[in-house]
Amino acid sequence: MQYDNLLSLQLEQTNEDMKFTAREIAELLGGVLEGNPDVVVSRVIKIDEDDKGGLSFLANPKYESYIYSTGADVVLVDKDFKPEKEIKSTLIRVEEPYLALASLLEVYNKLKHDKKGISSLAYVDETAKLGKNVYVGEYAHIGKDVVVGDDVKIYPNTYIGDYSSIGNACIIYAGARLYHDTIIGSECTLHSGVIIGGDGFGFAPDEKGEYVKVAQTGNVVIEDKVEIGANTTIDRATIGSTIIRKGVKLDNLIQVAHNVEIGENTVIAAQTGISGSTKIGRNCMIGGQVGFAGHIKIGDNVKIQAQSGIASDVKDGEVIMGTPAINLRHFMKSYIHFKNLGDIIRRIEELEKKAGG
Question: Computed over its alpha carbons, how large is the radius of gyration of the chain?
Fold first, then answer.
C-alpha cells in the first residue's frame, strides 16, 4: 500500500481528526461495501461500544453478537461473514479484518505525522546532507557529515551524532540519541528515549585489581524496517558492529550489548537483556524479561517464554522456558513436581521413619 496513492483520497482534517468515508475505506482496503458509502468515520471503537462516527471490526466469531447492536457506523468483516439478522452499520468485507484495520491505522499514522520543514531552533551542521521532505523539530542536533534520507521525521530534542546516516522514511521520536557513526536503514522507527551506540560494557582488571575501560571503537548498524521501543539501548561494538537485521521489532526497555547480532524478523518483548557477542537467529519470538548470557548462539525460529534464563546455545526451532531454560514440554512436566515438592519431601520423610522403625 503506497502512501503516495493515499493523497488522492481527499481526506478531510478537522481538529486533528482524520475523517474517512466508507467508500474511501473500501477503496483503500480493496473491500466490498454494503450500506451507505457516504457515511463518515473519524475514530476506531470497540464493537461493543455505542459511538457514532466510529469504525470497528469483527475478527473473532465470539464477538458476533455485538455486530447487531453496535453503534459503529462502519464495521470491517470477513468476506465470508453471513449475518443472522439485520445490521444497521455499513459493512466492508475484506480478506482479514484485523490486518485490514492495521493497514488503515498505518495510513492514518502516516498522514498524522506528515510533517515537513527544518525548525529555526534546530542545529544542522553545514556538512550534513538532508533529503527531500525532511522534518527536523526544535532543539534537534544533527552533527558533522550526517546523511539523512528522504521523508525522514526527526522530532524535537533528538541528537544525531557525527558521521551517522539515516535511510528514507524513518521516524525518530523526541529525545532519541544516536551516537556517532550509527547507521540506520530505511523505514525504521525509533521511539523516545532510545539510545543507539552508547559504549559497550567493556572493562579489564589491571595488576592492582582496578578496572580499566576498554575503548569501544565499533558502531551500530540497524537495517530496514526495524522498530525500537522507548528507552531501549543498543551498545556500539568493541570492534566491528552491533547489528540489528531487517524487520526486527524491539519492545521498550531492552538492553542490547556490544557486538550482539539479532536476525531478520525477530521480535523481543520488554525488559529483555542480551549480553555481549550473543547471536540471535531469524524469526525468533522472545518474551519479556528474558536474560541471555554472552557469547552464545540462538538458532532460527526459536520461541523463548518470558523470564527465561538462557545460558547456552539453542538449536533451530526450539521452544524453551525456565532458568536455566529447557524444552517447554519438559518444563511443564517437571513443574507438576516443582509445585508439589513440599508434599513429596513430607512423604519421603514419613517413609524413612517407617523404614527405620
Answer: 26
pLDDT tens digit sequence for 207-233? 999 999 999 999 999 999 999 999 999
258 is catalytic: yes
3-state class (DSSP) for residue 226: coil
Name residues whose C-beta falls within 8 Å of residue 141's C-beta, 6 or more positions apart in sequence.
122, 123, 158, 159, 160
Per the CB < 8 A criterion, the answer to whether 36 and 90 are in contact is yes
Q: Which residue has the cell 461473514?
A: 81
Q: What are the φ/ψ torsions at residue 143 (nearest 5 degrees)? A: -85, -170
Burial 18-43 (b: 16+ CB within 10 A, else e): bebbbbbbbbbbebebbbeeebbbbe
Contacts of 175 (CB under 8 A, 6+ apart): 155, 157, 158, 192, 193
> Tens digits of per-residue pLDDT, 162-214?
999 999 999 999 999 999 999 999 999 999 999 999 999 999 999 999 999 99
Q: Are 295 and 277 in contact (CB under 8 A)?
A: yes
Q: Are strands 135-136 and 117-118 parallel, antiparallel or unpaired?
A: parallel
Q: Which of 113, 141, 191, 258 is catalytic?
A: 258
Write down the pTM of the prediction: 0.78
Residue 7 DSSP symbol: G
What's 31's DSSP letter? P
Tell the residue number behind the cell numbers 484495520, with chain if given.
101
| CA angle, 260 then 262 then 266, to 5° | 155
273-322, pLDDT tens digit by residue? 999 999 999 999 999 999 999 999 999 999 999 999 999 999 999 999 98
